[in-house]
Each structure stands twice: as structure tokens, then as C-alpha cells.
Amino acid sequence: MACRWCSGSSPPFTAAWCPEVAVLPPDMDEAGFAALLGEFRAAVGEEWVWSGTADMFPYRDSFSPVWDTAEERHASAAVAPADVEQVQQIVRIARRFRVPLYPISTGKNFGYGGPSPNVNGSVVLDLKRLNRVLEIDEARHFVLVEPGVSYFDLYRVVQERGLKLMVDCPDPGWGSPVGNSLERGIGYTMPHFRDHFGAHCGMEVVLPDGELMRTGMGALPGAKTWQEYPYGFGPDPAGLFAQGNFGIVTKMGFRLMPLPEYYRTGLITVRRRQDFAKLVEHVNYLSDSGFIGEAVYGSPLAALMGDASFAAVATRPGGPADADMDAAAEAAGLPSWQVDLQFFGPEAVTSAGWQYAKDRILSDIPGAAALDGDHFALPATEDQLLNTTQSYRSGIRRYGALGVPSLGIWRIVRDDGHVGFFPVLPRSGEAVFEMQRVLGDALREFGMNSFFNATSAPLYWHTFAFQMVFAPTVRKNDPSHNATVHRAMKKAVAVAAEHGWGDYRAAPIYQDDVAATYSFNNHAMRRFHEQLKDAIDPDGIIAPGRGGVWPRRFRR
Amino acid sequence: MMRGGAALLLLGLGGWGAAGAQEVLEGGGPASQASYAPASLDHPGRELFERNCAACHGAGPGDDGAPMLPGTAALERKYRGQVPAALELRGGLGAEVIAVFVRGGSGTMPSFRKSELSDAQVHEIAAYLEASAAAHLARD
Fold first, then answer.
1. pLDDT given for residue B36 in this prediction
2. Looking at this predicted complex, what is its ipTM?
3. N- or C-end of chain B: fewer Cβ atoms within 10 A?
4. Quick check: A128 contacting B, CB < 8 Å?
5. Spatial CA neighbour of A423 closest among A452, A392, A387, A385
6. Share of chain B above pLDDT 70, in %
7. For testing the chain B interface, which of A167, A186, A382 should be mutated: the one with the most B CBs within 10 Å?
8. Which CATH number does the domain B23-139 belong to among 3.90.440.10, 1.10.560.10, 3.30.450.40, 1.10.760.10?
9. Any idea which architecture A133-258 has in CATH?
């Protein structure tokens, strides 16, 4: 296997991957690989099977902190079926050859591994060609799509047909509703729509033996409610296919929000650091009562982090004294915290909702203030969408807030991308302050205090929980930087777990670390998943290792 | 992700830029992310560009007050006005150069798979960009 890259040299290239020697599937020689590719080509056509380093380059994780190291995961080939029957054929071929498949939808899961697999040598099952919006219902508010449909595609269908429906989009919008929801991705609108897996309703799955299964009402022949009642009867296996490896989802239904008549924004600010606790409680009430969309928290004091003396206070080991933070806020003439509120519905309802929110919060928190924001009828005009008329500095991403897909968010991506760790925490001020302090101290050695300091705000994306963000950049030509990031990610996962905070989603290179933290009763959940995996997919045909679930064949 | 770091980091950004008016608003996406080419330019690569490239490399304004879309802004930073940052105005790249970036990515731009864009489609996009740039030059 020697070549000009790896002959007699040490890693990065020798252990896992070499630019001139393609990786092979596990337990397979080159003759077997050639035979496998031949069968794939016969099933889907010559032009839809790829192998070799050039064609497989786009299947690498371009945001990988282990880029060009022995830890990077490489697929051996990719195959792109045109329909469900071809997916079944491919699964049966892979089963016969005992070759792991790694399904992707649009392959845009950047920051979480992109299109790269858990196991070296896996064949990527690229579902991009399954790209039909199969059914969309304006009166009953649902859609049924294939995995290759992107949010851009779905939005275009809604626009072209003039449907009064809103699509809750993640950022950026080139991902797939199927893929994003199976990753338990999130969006920006009302709580029960921005939890994308929670908003799914019915799926079709190719199982590891090639059988086709439908969940919920889809299991009942002739049912007309597949996208309206998710459970059907008996145990609902749908959850196994999110961040899992028990099948390949080929169709998925989603609930859609009727396009609201009106959109209204408003900003609440509070003066003191500890006021945040009450502010969060009020917003929890508003959200759980269904009055508001995503609440976007922020600290105006973050603008002071460029000042060394303030930064020293905000990053003080063990956390700052409240009085010091309040004094800094007062000296700068800034409130300590703010929250953008968003209201959807008839104009009068949004007006009443905003008035209620103001009255409720301002009457309870001394010094709290409210600013009326943009408000307008939907659909938004181009100028409204561009978000240039808000009279105050807002954290709202207007495209996302209005369910319009965009790539505009890419402007904040630095270096060569980033990885993400988003620990889940309770919706309380106390919990936010604790995470600021604990993870700020834990990550201090890596010099990455911009993520966890006394001005770091929680993200309110999930319906009933906060998250905070650790998303350090990667640099393809800076192995030392990437190694630091890699160590920081692993430490963040471990330290968070010691405090009861778990990640919600992870790249393949971190999935085992994260899964290991969900360890109640001697890893009872993992052992349960392994039993299931061994029963239906002992050879690991479907994404072995995904979600930390390994079949017997690959368990170490 | 990606959704993640983004929104939070945006909180620290200020200074709303003026949004430029869009000359021609077409395509199935948001108007600001549609093609910038003259409406009369009928080219098979146009839809491919609009659906695969324009959301990042279009000539319209970016989101939330950003003056440019991210890919266009990146090229503006790189070339500092020496060449048009918007690909539809630039011209002279050719299919081989376009293919290098489509298949290999660059910086934060990931590469595109052949299941997303075939080699023939990449050539169509390159041809459209030439035609678009020429149309703009002719109009100027």
C-alpha cells in the first residue's frame, strides 16, 4: 500500500487514509470491493456509483477537527438510488456482502460530521435523488417528503403553489427536513414546530433486511391519517430512527404551521444580572402557554467583552460577583439581559399578546423595560424579510423566524468551519449561571472563553429546554489548533456530564463519547439498543456506531 | 450544525448595513437570493445556479442587514474589488476553475457531490456565469 504520501512515514496518512489508496469496506479485499460495486452499478446504473479518492472527496467531513489524521472517518464508495425499490436492492446487496451503509439525505450535516460515516470503509447511501414532495395539504397542514428534498425545495413548492403554510427551517436551509429531523434538528418558529423530530408525523423505513415498514397510521392499509396521527397502535418505533441505525427512512411526514396572518416583535430588557431568573420564568410561562415563538436571549454586556477589565470580571474563575456585573452594566448604561419576543397570529392577537407580556414582566421586575419592534402582515415583503428596519439591536434571524430558508448564516462561519457541542440545561437563570461558570472554568485551559462567560446567553430552540453553545473553529492546515479543539470537545462532553448536562447531537467522532454519558443503571439504554441492533442487524449493515449503537460484529 | 453558534454569535454583531435594491427578482427562493441576471437571459444553467449557488454567491443583500451574501462577501474580502465579487458579474472563470471549487470546496465552502451536481451541470453553471457576465458588460 506504499505511495508517495505514506511510504515509511508516520501518520497522518498511514493509519486510516491515504490520498492515493482508497479505503476498503471492513473485512473486504479489493476483489470483493470490485464485485460489490459491480452489483451496485447493476442496481442503480453506472453513473450513480462512485469510488476513488477524487469522487469520494466531497463525502469527507469538511468541518472535521481530525481532518487528515488517523481519526478521520472515510467512506469507500457512494451509491445514489433513484427510488425506494433501489434502496431495498442496495440494502440486500450490502447485507449479502456484509458491508455497512451510511445513509445521508442532503449530506449537509456540517459541524456534526457532514456526509462522513462512523466506520471507515462504509458505503454512503446517498439519498439525494429521492427528492419528491409527495403530498402537501394546505387545509390539513402537513407534508410528506422524501429525504433528498431540501428546505429550499419545500419552500419553493409552497411558494409556487401559493399555499398559506409556513415551513420551520433550520439554519442553513440547504439541509433536508428528513435528515434534519432525524438528527433532532431545530428551527425558529413556534415551539411545537421548531422541534423538527417532534413535528414529524409518520415515516416509511427500509429495514436492515430490505423490508419496507411504515410507522403510525401508515401501518394500516387504507388509512388517510398517516400525517395526522403519529402513533397508530401499539409500540411506536419511530424514535429508533432518529440518531439511530435501525433502518433507512425513505418517506417522512411533517406537521406544518398555517401561515400566520401577522408577525410582531418586541424587546424586553432587565437591569440586573439576577433579574434574568425572573425573566426566564416569565418567558417560560409565555412559551408553554403557546403565546410566543422562539424567545431570543442575549446580554447587551457581551459588547463589552473587548474591554480587558470587563472581560476579566466576566470570565473570573468561579464566576463573577453579581455586584461587579451590575456595576459594569450601570457604568456602561446597558441592561444586563434582553429577550426578543415574537408573536404569530391575527394582528389583534399579536397585539394583545405583546401587551400582556409587557404588563406581566414589567410589573414584576423593577427596572425592566420594553421596546415595541417591527410588526407586519404575512407574508413578509422583501424589505421586511431583509430585517433592516428594527429600531433596536435584535438577535432574531428574520429569515428563520419567518420560515424562509437561507444560507445567510454562513457569514458567521470562521476559519474552515467548526464543530458543535450543545449541552441541554434547564430553563432557569440559576442553571444558565452554573453552566457559564462550570464550562467557562473547564475550558479556560484551551483559551476559548468566548463561549462560556457571564454574558453567555442560552439558546431557546428546543420546546422545553435550553441549550448553550460550544462551537470552536477548525483549520485544515493547522493540526495543532485542531488537536486543541478535539481535546476541548472531549473535555466539554465529560465535564458537562458530571453536572447532568448532555449533548443533544454529535459528529460520528464524538458519538461514542456522548453516548457513554447517558449511562444510567450501568448503561441500560445502550445495552437495550445493542440488543435491538443485534436482533435486527447483527452484521451492522445500517450505520454501525451511529448514535453510539454498535452491533455485535463491531463492538469493542 | 449548524444552526447553533450562529444565532448566539449574531447577538454581538451590530451595524445594520443598507440593503441594496434587487435589480431583477426571480427564482423560487427569497427574492434577495435569486438570480441577478437580466430577466431576458434564458440559459439552462440559470436555474442550476439559482438553486445551488445563488443563496451564497448571489448579488443581492445578505440576511439581517448584511450587505452581501456570505460567498459574495468572502470573495469581496479576498479580491478587494479587483474583480466583481458576485459570480454572475465576474466572468472569465471557466468550467475547470468552477469545477475545482465545486468539487473541492474552499475555506468554509464545502464541496458538492456528483449526486447534487453532475459534471455536465457544473459546466452549465459555468456557461451561465459567462453569459450573465457578458450580458452585464454589454448593458454597461
1. 63
2. 0.91
3. C
4. yes
5. A452
6. 71
7. A382
8. 1.10.760.10
9. 2-Layer Sandwich (3.30)
How many angstroms separate the CA atoms of A334 and A414, rounded? 28
pLDDT at site B30: 54
Indicate the pLDDT class of residue B18, thresholds 50, 70 and 90: very low
What is the rounded average pLDDT for all residues in chain A? 95
Query: Cβ of A160 under 8 Å from any chain B Cβ?
Result: yes
DSSP readout, A289-345? TT--S--EEE-GGGGGTTSHHHHHHHT-TT---HHHHHHHHHHHT--SEEEEEEEEE
**Which of B12, B18, B108 is opposite residue A410, by nearest beta carbon?**
B108
The cell 429550499 sits on which residue?
A: A152
Q: CB of A217 within 8 A of CB of A202?
A: yes
Look up residue A308 and give its amino acid. Answer: A
A504 is catalytic: yes
Would the CB atoms of A388 and B18 count as touching at under 8 Å?
yes
CATH topology of domain A517-554: Vanillyl-alcohol Oxidase; Chain A, domain 4 (1.10.45)
- Quick check: A109 and A176 in contact, CB under 8 A? no
Instruction: Report pLDDT digits (tens) over A53-81.
Output: 999 999 999 999 999 999 999 999 999 99
Q: Closest partner residue to B8 among A62, A170, A469, by Cβ?
A: A469
Rounded average pLDDT over A219-248: 98
| A460 among known catalytic residues | no
The pLDDT confidence band at residue B38, using thresholds 50, 70 and 90, is low
B59-98 per-position pLDDT tens digit: 999 999 999 999 999 999 999 999 999 999 999 999 999 9
Spell out the domain ranges in chain B.
Answer: 23-139
* Domain ranges for chain A: 30-126, 133-258, 262-394, 424-505, 517-554
The answer to whether A41 is a known catalytic residue is: no
Q: Say which CATH class A262-394 falls into.
A: alpha beta
3-state secondary structure of A146: coil
Query: What's the distance, Cα to Cα, between the start and end of chain A in Å?
Result: 26
- Secondary element (H or E) of residue A424: strand A424-425
Q: Which of B62, B113, B114 lies nearest to residue A408, judging by beta carbons?
A: B62
* Contacts A–B by Cβ distance under 8 A: 190
